[in-house]
UniProtKB/TrEMBL annotation, chains A, B:
SUPFAM superfamilies reported in the protein's UniProt record: Dimeric alpha+beta barrel (SSF54909), Winged helix' DNA-binding domain (SSF46785)
Coiled-coil ranges from the UniProt annotation: none
Alphabetical list of PROSITE patterns matching this protein: HTH_ASNC_2
GO biological process: regulation of DNA-templated transcription; response to amino acid
Keywords, in A-Z order: DNA-binding, Transcription, Transcription regulation
GO terms for cellular component: cytosol
Domain HTH asnC-type: 2-63
UniProt protein name: AsnC family transcriptional regulator
Transmembrane regions listed in the UniProt entry: none
A GO molecular function held by the record: sequence-specific DNA binding
Keyword hit for Transferase: no
Length: 156, 156
DNA sequence: AATGAAAAAAACTGGCT
DNA sequence: AGCCAGTTTTTTTCATT
């Protein structure tokens, strides 16, 4: 259901989304209409989830990244907990991790002060939270959502 | 340099990149040409970093997410270390974190087995790496690169 | 599925306010 | 900066192979 041509199209798009279809068509050596049809199909079949703008966090005063391990009482408070956390725009990621009933959050805030406030006022008070461990990011060298698709292990 | 209208445009784009300009124009109540000019300016001034496709990792057999804390000897091996790590497509993020000379990586692999191989064969052998601590993600509830821009603390 | 031609929509340009 | 009107480019549709 997904062949080398489609794979190639996705690679091109992952390199630079928002290049015109005609250009993609030129690069894969097909007619624009054919490429369009393939992309539509890839979207419909769920290979493509969507398109995102990447804003520059610095410019918006959201330079401070931190990872917060949220420890919970484990008594299936998960539902409301996740929902509440999801509602916080500063929380970019929520992962349930192996170990001892805890979630790992990636958050973005203005500075460490705002971060502290976020944790104290928004996260710590959530029902089921027994504590947090914060890891402050001092420098980010790579940050992308690209996934490796050179591979043979895709679900066709 | 950035006003409420531009802010609004960015909000709309963050909601759904790849909607036509005319539609954005309609939503902010301006002429398409004016909106276009604003977007171009936002790009040029570095508020917009770029546009990305979001591929569905499941479909590409990259469902396993893990965070790897890489401990280093700290003797400024940083340069080569970061460069080597950056070259690994499975490594989506590289952060230098506060604490005891360590980097935090976000990686995506096929399964825990492939993850183990990645760590043993690609990460552990890097010069300056003294050890790794891996946190396996069992479930991801939120994962976005969106940043909060409702705010007053943006660099104008 | 792919193509090519035609139609529709969108992006862009420039002159003017 | 924004708008409008004209131009170019891109996207989309569709009949055909």
């Amino acid at each position: 259901m997904i062949d080398d041509i489609s794979l190639n199209i996705l690679k091109i798009l992952q390199q630079k989304a928002r290049i015109p279809n005609v250009e993609v068509a030129r690069q894969v050596g097909m007619a624009p209409s054919a490429v369009l049809e393939r992309i539509r199909k890839l979207e419909k079949m769920g290979y493509i989830d969507g398109y995102e703008v990447r804003l520059n966090p610095e410019r918006f005063g959201k330079s401070q990244v931190a990872f917060i391990q949220v420890h919970t009482s484990g008594k299936t408070e998960g539902q409301g907990l996740v929902k509440t956390l999801s509602g916080l725009p500063q929380v970019q990621e929520i992962h349930y991790v192996a170990g001892k009933d805890s979630y790992l959050l990636k958050v973005r805030e203005t500075d460490t002060q705002a971060l502290g406030r976020l944790i104290r006022e928004r996260i710590a008070p959530i029902k089921g939270v027994t504590g947090t461990t914060t890891t402050i990011v001092m420098n980010t060298f790579k940050e992308t959502a690209r996934i490796p698709i050179d591979d043979q292990d895709l679900i066709r």
